[in-house]
Amino acid sequence: MPENLKLLESLLIALALGVLIGAERGIARVRQRVEEKTTFAGIRTFTLIALLGALSLHFTNYFGRVFFVVSFFGFVLLVTAAYIITSKKEKDVGTTTEITAILTFFYGALCMTEYRLVAIVLAIFTTVILYTKKPAYAFLGRVTDEEFYATLKFAIIAFVVLPFLPKDDYLGFFNPYRIWLIVVIISGIEFVGYVIMKLMPPRKGIAIMGFLGGIISSTALVLNASRESKREKMLTNSLAFSSAIASSTVFLKLILEVYIVNKAMLDKVALPMIIMFILGMIGALFLWKRSKAEEEIKTIDLKSPFTLNPALKFAVFFALIIFLVTFANKYLGVSGVYVTSAIGGLANLDVPTVSLASLAYRDITAEVATLGIVIAACVNTVSKAGIAFLLGSKDFSKLVILSFSFPIIGAILYMVVFMYS
Hints:
17 helices, 2 domains, mainly alpha
């Protein structure tokens, strides 16, 4: 590509990022009904700021690095002067727009380097952060002191202690660093779902709640829905539909976990999990029409997964399953691995999944690991149906067992074909 076209491409990307951020600032201004003259910058100004940053870095090729430094500090002085004037006039000491303007200058400059993709990603994240001001405050309002304190403790243990854990294997299977890293990753995935659920309004679509519940903990959602079905009999269909969505979503979550732990296993695990997901969704569709006439259910109370005690239990269980699978494969053969997978699936589907995926191609074959994960998923689905039967209302348990039977049958058929192919 000719140099002129490369330069033009980089400048256009910088302009696009400026438009993106400036559009958000303009929308925020419209929401607050602020007059244009009383604000520091809008969509046009931010677009020009990004262009200024890009050109300032480009001209260093001709005038040296001093040109960029002078341009930046001159721009900072302009922003500072604008802030002083607007803050005195409007009696508002907020600095969000001014800081965003400085960041936009740097994003424009980054567009002229090999880190252009970094600039694009950061600009998008910046826009998201700016645009989600109200949902962010709503989320903070719904977080309890206990949840925040538990999250803080877990974050310290996760990110401060993790780098110092030994990375060597002990007894052939116990690797403290790898085990805790996986715990942090799985908890992080669940925490993202939890944050999104907290950002949602108190009443939401049952499908969305089921999807997020499947990411956080499908077992916890089915457990809570089962108890709720006895108190809110008018919402039986909605609760069953949400449970079916959650139980189906967990199969997609397992695909993500396998990809994170062992990418080489993805092509083998994806097929049975997608089959179970599709069949689970078909089962959920039978409940969808029945639930449309009902009111939307309230948020089912799910605790934050980003807490220390559950994470420690997960780590212990994870290490135990790895040990049992390794021991069973060595002394009991393949059947021992399958029995261990089934037992693990009764309590927690994530643990046998990541355990088997981590051992695949190393201590056990990929085929054995795949079938073990399918067995664990099947047993876990059966256990959730058992929870609905034991704790839910009669009508609720019938609907859940009916919808859950679809992925269970699919898993059984897959295992039969797998073993005899």
